[in-house]
Amino acid sequence: MTAELPELTTAETTAPKTNLPGGGVEELLEDVTDEEILLPPIELALSAEDCGIRLDKVLSRLVPQYSRSRIQQWIDAGHVTIDGAPARGKTTAFGDEHVVILPQAAPEELAFHPEPMDLRIVHEDASLLVIDKAAGVVVHPAAGNWSGTLLNGLLHYLPALGGVPRAGIVHRLDKDTSGLLVVAKSLIAQTDLVRQLQARTVKREYLALVWGTPLATGKVDAAIGRHNRDRVRMAVSENATAKPAVTHFERLATGLLDGRAVSLMRCTLETGRTHQIRVHMQSIGFALVGDALYGKQHLTTVFPRQALHAWRLGLVHPRSGKQKEWSSALPADFALLLQRAGIAKPDLNAG
Length: 351
What we know:
By secondary structure, the chain is α+β, with helices and mostly antiparallel strands. The protein contains eight helices and 15 strands. The chain has helices at residues 25-28, 55-62, 68-76, 107-110, 150-157, 187-198, 276-283, 332-340; strands at 42-45, 80-82, 85-86, 98-101, 121-124, 128-133, 178-184, 203-211, 217-221, 224-226, 234-236, 246-257, 260-269, 308-316, 323-327. The two termini are 45 Å apart. Residues 1-38 have low confidence and may be disordered.
């Protein structure tokens, strides 16, 4: 999805030329692939009024539809030349140079592009997809992850999802959480599923391995909001902006991991707040094994991710109105972790 750009005036650009000193656009583009040319090149002939001014300031004045910081990024990345040679950000203009800019779309402008991905499809029909997401896959593009996300893979698998908000994604899983999530194929189906989530009728059960031995069963009913000092983290909070969050838990088994007690928990969500299970379990003293954000830092090397798997998903089908349910086997790394802890692999078909 490329942002619409203001049209340049004739004073800001000139038509591409091949006979200008230092070479024109054609020469600059010789080593650029078609896939990299996303926006038309811009040629500028500097004048005497630009003399003595830093190049990035000159360009930001001549090409005002792009921010100065964006232009500086293009200069640093080699997408701007002066008389055929790569430009430098602190270069001072003389006023007679020929400048060529190859505008590059910002990462967020490319985020909703299709990309090939091996999708683990548990179920598919005319209304929805159920995906078994692998750990390490980001669900939705965001800062630091503008490509390679599940959304990109969905758009490649089913281009029609481009017409559905967020490519049909109804709810998310953290990058390092594995397991099931549902994707709607139409706006009607997505609206229905979102309403089910709001009504707390979607069944979402997770398996988590935590440090320590919690009560056999219990419930954490505590609002969650942004941490007041670390904006990356969430926290149990009484702040007015915190949102209600409820997690039910059941201890399935106990074991030892590197000599420390661990417990396999079944966690059921009523709500779906960011990092909910991780925050709630940490708040009662039982952080997830491998959780580098909320867990015990000296124990993060035991497992390379949070030991959390979305293993069961149930909902009312938006078209048939029938209750549907799917389950996902534990991924190999989680199963091996349980083996190390002396915990038998749970029977996912029971209960």
